[in-house]
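Class prep. Protein, please:
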Amino acid sequence: MNDIIEPVRPTAAVPRGEHAPERTLVLVPAIKRRGEYGGRVRMARRDEAVGLARAIDLDVVDAISVPLAERRPATLFGSGKVDAVAREVAAQNIGLVVVDGVLSPVQQRNLERAWKAKVIDRTGLILEIFGERARTREGRLQVELAHLNYQKSRLVRSWTHLERQRGGFGFLGGPGETQIEADRRMIEARVARIENDLKTVATRRRLQRATRKKGAEALIALVGYTNAGKSTLFNALTRSRVFVDDRLFATLDPTLRRITLPHGAVAVLSDTVGFVADLPTTLVAAFRATLEEVAEADIVLNVRDITHTDTQAQADDVTAVLSELGVDGRDPGRVIEVWNKIDLVPEARRPPRSIPARLNGEGSAPAAVAVSALTGEGLTQLMEAIEERVAGGRRTYAVELTGEGLANLHLLYEIGEVLARQDRPDGATAVTVRVPTDRETLLRRSFPGASLVA
């Protein structure tokens, strides 16, 4: 095999239960992507594929970039490459081959026969990771739905030889769980039940969002490529202890926390599942109830690992997924790019803390704030940028309360964001309040003497 970019260090994996990690070969079809065919993109994609495999502690013995001029309908790769891989599999005692691309059921079946090993594609691997990482009932339902929809198209092949070795969703097989949901009618019935349960989830989330909007709380969604540091940033902004791990898809189940902005306004911050290149459409569809938090968000923070060699390509992948959710990832009025991990960048090469929204030949580009979620650098500027977006379109009023009117002071805190309050010696209270557009009528009705601040 002469297409190896560089040797892959053996995985220091911890055996799960009584089973040693599966000896795994990763194949990365080097199809021209984003106008490049060079080593940088190929290596970045290869490293990501290895990271995905190691996310479930597979023992990655080798990772190979395979130039691919055309897709072969029967096996994806040419016959010579198929034979070479077969020799590699036999020589290295490989039990699982991960193809970092999309395989049709026929291709998957033919490759398993040729290589005498289990074969899964990128979608199957990501679903396996998600199946292992989901912790809440909602998360597991969403992953199972994606798995079943994926499995439906593969009922033409036999799964009886795939022995189950972990608590995922069956792509790596297992005793007692063979032929999982093999009957199409059973799968469709289960899909219908899960979809009904997720409709309840979606309804509950809509009610929660409506309640937050009544309280004038802005929703801020953290999105970004997997392992960009979203959960670390979430913990830094909310002072929480959400699980953080230096592995792909460490966060799967969504988490929401309230944060207080510099002038006292309360907003809700949502941490979401990380995106990835070629994120399976089955996952986007299954997680729609959760990802609606992103679609409904007032502000979207696109967190980028600015030290990654493929950072711009990763940002483009996130933008593509956002588009599937109906969100314009380049909207400068709604999206802020968070350039994370600047602590790993030499001082002389660090970008400015704040970069304003700009226009270029390709259209608009959102504002960017350079931060280190780990050290706290730039977080003050990020919070100020968030508050600026939250306040956009909101007008400020001055209200003076005297006598019996002081009893209604609490209403100002409920209607809008109190920016300043002065209790004067004469017993009157002067309040400056910023009000959402849809609450200005309520403010004027409740406080007829309110005046607009220039």
